[in-house]
Amino acid sequence: MSAVKKKMDAFDVAAVVYELDKVLNGARLANIYCIDETFIFKFRRKGGNFYLIFNPEVGAYLTKYEFEVPKQPPSFVIELRRYIRGGLVSKVSQLNRDRIIVFELEKGGLKFFLVMELVREGNLILADSNLKIILALKYKKMKDRSILRGERYMPPPGGLDPLDVKLEELYNEIRKEEKERSLVRAFFKILNIPPGVIKEVFYEFGEIKVNQVDSHILSAVLGKIKEMYSEIAEGRLEPNIAYRNGVPIGVYPIKMAHLGEVERKYFNSFNEALDEYFTRFLFKAKRKIRGLEKIAKQVSDVERTIEEYRNKEAEARSLAKVLMGNLHVVELTLQRIREALERGEKPLLEEIGISGVKILSLDLARKMVEAEIDGRNVILDLKKSAGENASAYFEEAKKYRRKAERAREVLEKLREKLRVESEAEESEKIVLKLRRAKKWYEKFRWFISSDGFLVVGGRDASQNEALVKKYMESSDIFLHAVVYGSPAVIIKAENRPVPKRTILEAAQFTASYSRAWEAGFFSADVYWVYPSQVSKKTPSGEYMGKGSFMIYGKRNYLRKVPLALAIGLVLKNSSLEILYGPPPPIAKKAQFYVLLLPGKMDREKAAARVLERLRLQVLNYFKEKKVLFKIDRQQILELLPKGRFHVVEKPEKVLEQIERYYVEEIGEKASNN
Asked: Which of 228, 240, 263, 436 is 20 to 30 A from 465 (CA-CA)?
């Protein structure tokens, strides 16, 4: 049974570097995070963000998961950010065909080498353009090299490069290893090549001894190695995870035949396969791989034992039937032997047998006879009749059947244990959530109206400016509160007529996030206009600040819009998603919500109260089920406007009042029209 793969090897590094250079070349290093000794590098380029995991003891690859990173990074990460955050990736390469990945970055006219070592216990090293070490995760002085600040970076010594080595050079090196009988072991020592590749090569060639090697054999072996590496260099990958008895045992860039009979799951990229295989192991409390592997081996052993019992049962039953088919002649043969023994004679084997029965051996001490009957070897007990001997074989068959049944019971228990342990292992992992691409509007304040329209508002003057300049289109509607310090809010119409209710909800959103809340008002006036009426052009001699706009033409006013907000939670894809905005659409969509009005409670206390109310609603809903409530006070604080608050105990009455206001406004507008 193959050992479970616990880290990337040099062949994996070659494959992952092939993909990383294509994806990250030309990207900017946007940020660096660290969870324990696992680093997460955020890269940004046209087309989106990419996140690379690096763990010195495991590997490096792109991930589709998102993680909660510590708010305060360690000093090493702070230093790394200072030097290379914002740097442009110009190349990703593998060093010396070893487990070393090198990122070449350029920032401010300077060149840096970020070296990710997976050799030994691993390391993360930053060097300048002359390869002088600036920073290292682990500083060390070793026999063969030193990782010290100011020293020139030197990679660890390795074997011969399998793609550059000359046949004659390799042959001479192998002849020096005559004390190694196996060519496989000699290759391990001489070439800078991982065991998995050598096993795959010799799986095809079989066992070869060093003293059998000639240039033809060596050329063929070397050719196979180069063929495997050319598959990587040319991008002919078959990324897969191998499973045995449902347990993952390894991840590979190509299909490895030496693994034998295994199940495989294939992926679109090797990075995806590495992410699927390693990430679930990186972020959990304990590693239970060995325990699971042990149980899986027990399952295989018991399965093999059951097969043996079945074979023995079939053999005993078959011999019993042979005896039953020759009962008379077997009985006569046994009788002859007994009579000879009673006379004190030693029977001659060739004289005892009767037609169809040939005596092969006689054990007088144990009173046992070995005979050949119908071409089958049968052991007979002289103390029993032919019928009793047949019955003994039938009983033996029953005995093995019972053993097989008991073994099957053990097998079911082991399989159940394997399932339970696998689930327990899953429960110990940090919850991994797939990272989704953020929509453009998620950096602003936003909500979806009851009629399904996207409503977006700026958080500050810069966002107000960007919202109007970059995202407002001719069919949209622009809203602003009649107070100093209002967000610019737009309803994204997408060439559809906007219902009055959506305009009212957007107006309430606008008023609630304006300075009116901070001032302690309970209502505020809001107006709306079309995009063609909004401009940055000012009368001659006047200046328009960032986030401010001139409004030309008629303004459509909504008077005394009530200030109110709802913060809610909706269960989506087994996780809780936060909704916020005017109460009616949030109360309609959210499974749990809290309603807020201007009041006397400060923001920090209000955020804590909202969080507690939501938590209790969720726990009461799920009752006995264990629920991971992963929403913190900071997330709630970011949703609150400036000012003080009242957390409504019974939101139904307030919702009725808001609904009445909507109905009156819609009715009044309809009659005016």
From this structure: 436
